[in-house]
Amino acid sequence: MTDPLHEIGLVAFDFDGTMTVKDSFTAFLAWRAGGVRYAVGCVKLTPKIIAYLFDRNRGKLKAAAVREFLKGATQSQLEQQARVFAEKNSGRLLRPDAVDTWRRWRTKGAKTVIVTASPDFVVAPFARGLGADGLIGTELAFDADGRCIGVLAGQNCRGPEKVRRLKETYGEDLRLTAAYGDTSGDKEMLAIADEPGYRVFRGKP
Prior knowledge:
Helices cover 51% and strands 19% of the residues. It has helices at residues 4-8, 24-33, 35-44, 46-55, 58-69, 75-93, 96-107, 120-130, 160-170, 187-191; strands spanning 10-13, 111-119, 134-138, 140-142, 148-152, 176-181, 193-198. Strands 3-2-1-6-7 form a 5-stranded parallel β-sheet. Strands 4-5 form a two-stranded antiparallel sheet.
């Protein structure tokens, strides 16, 4: 029996650098913390940044940033702040040519999903604004009171993890109609697409 999802077509977009001109998570952290607090936090993270230059473990660096800037915040607070951030910054972040391609696929009847290494709560307001059919992102861990405990819940959603999460959501035999990305962390996702698009968007707001 033919998979109806494959007939319709599923198109996956990376978010940061592909649909945006810069990393949404660091932009959110800087916006939320304010200039002085963000600068102080970045100084505290210097040992982790140096370690990243050697181990190239983006997940560890991201978890360290979560601990420094978000630990103790409630999930509802973060979601509300992310909504405000998106309202104020979507016009400065989103690439117009990426949005145009997104809309063209939707006009054709394709299902569109954002697959991002950024925390899902940061990207969720953008996804809703674009009318996304799905969002897969890095998840943060929260305690029983709904407070961020400063670690990731699962793996950083990058590289093979993007494909694993896609197949977990849409089925093991998933084949994407198209996929778009801009880094080596997207190559596995692009490899399961009939139409892979690597660094095809250049537009600026």
